[in-house]
Amino acid sequence: MIEEGLNRPRKLTLDERDTLAEPLLAGEDLTFGKIRKLAGLSGATRINLEDKGRDRLKGDASAARLGGGKGALKRLWPTLDEVRRAELIERLLEEEDEDALKGWLLGDIGATPEEAEEAVRFRPPDGHIRLGPTAARRVVAELKKGDPETGELITYNEACKRAGFHHSDMRDGVVFDRLPDYREALERHTVGGTGDPDDPFEKRMGRITNPTVHIGLNQLRRVMNALIDRYGPPTEIVLELARELKQTGEQKKDAEKKNKDNERANQKRRDDLQAAGYRDNPANLRLLRLWEDLGPMPRVCTYTGRPISFDDVFSDRVEIEHILPFSRTLDDTMANKTLAFREANRGKRNFAPEGAFSGVEYEAIQIRADALPRNKAWRFKPGAMERYENEDRDFLAERRLGSGRGRIRPGLGLSGARSVSGQQRRSHDLEPDGQRLGHPGQTL
Question: Is residue 299 exposed (0-12), middle (13-18) or buried (19+ Cβ within 10 Å)?
Fold first, then answer.
């Protein structure tokens, strides 16, 4: 939104949007000062995105890597239209035969041998969208058109509606007699499932990775099914949304500073990854952050004392290890993770450090753990499991408000599994005690 003096906040016009989109889609980052200049806005104009701790809008990363100042195809990129650029990126991603890809770049795109050689090493930015190519093209076409009657921009959800989709309602019309295990109703939210019908239910379906959400959804199912058993199916389900408490000006400044610090740290990690030739993706950024948490250089494995080099981090020699066993804590936060050499991780097995090591070896581990952040170091000390089970459970305390918001979308989806009427009905097999608890062996 744009705020100009005492005028009411407004959206960008279509012309202003198109003016800004051109350099952004070409891979150029735009500072908010540059945005004001390109859109013809005064220096006093306020842009709402500046309140989010940003100092710029980032351009198309794929375009920057191919057509930017150091891009493999910087000479040719400006000559390609939108369709040709999309075809080029698709070829770079999908073509497995490197010689065939080089031949296509030389013959169809007009690249030189040197440009083709560099282009085949293109690594796209990590990420994905929730739409397939056909749906994405239809939604983007609506976004480009805007509202023909008013000449204004339209939002993503409105563009989805005009393209014949709904931006968030993924219900399939199936109505259950009772709430099923969330993994059935929310299959697209789970990860790690094999999909093999011969595997046990939990292995086949996977789970939501956030332990707080996993527990909360199972509790929601139990409570709602108990209410259904007693009172019958509800006619309406209302979920209360978590709300942020209003922040003071000082708190907002602190939050913005923290966001900027995190952005700078992540940008440095991205630069380090690219300089070393590793993919810039969330998994590698997470590995790099865990490596930094090991303390000052030389960074060592807390369990063995052996140095872990930058290249070790991205090899099969090193693994992410849960300090306190995940099976006993359901704590999958960064505070409960560290990097360890594979043999140390396997040797530790399903124990806390105190239970896996003893004597001089355990004393040395505790000393090395002092280099870690405090929220990790205590987990290596004697009595850590007891402290976790009886006192701390800090991952739940720290995430209670944040995960409350994180549970809302899956919670709405799970509740919605029985809120659609007039469609096919399904029920689970009855257990011996008369309760429909879904599949045998599943965790409640």
Answer: buried
Question: Strands 46-47, 2-3: parallel, antiparallel or unpaired by DSSP?
Answer: antiparallel
Helix axes 394-416, 211-231, angle to 10 degrees: 50
Tokens of 338: 């560290």
Distances (CA, A) of 271 to 264, 302, 332: 11, 26, 27
Q: How far is CA 49 from CA 46, 77, 108, 342, in A?
A: 9, 29, 41, 44
pLDDT by 10s per residue, the chain, length 444: 788 776 778 888 888 889 999 889 888 889 988 998 998 888 888 888 876 667 888 888 888 888 887 788 888 888 888 888 888 888 887 787 888 999 999 999 999 999 998 888 877 776 666 677 888 889 999 999 988 888 888 888 889 889 988 766 666 677 788 888 888 888 777 777 788 888 888 888 888 877 778 888 888 899 989 999 999 888 877 777 665 666 677 877 887 888 888 888 989 999 999 899 888 888 889 999 999 999 988 999 999 999 999 999 999 899 999 999 987 787 888 999 999 998 998 889 889 999 999 999 999 999 999 999 999 999 999 999 988 877 654 444 444 444 445 555 566 566 665 544 333 333 333 333 333 333 333 333
Determine which helix (DSSP H) or strand (DSSP E) holds 355, and give its type and residue range.
helix 353-356
The pTM of the full predicted model, rounded to 2 decimals, is 0.49
Contact status, residue 404 vs residue 397, Cβ threshold 8 Å = no
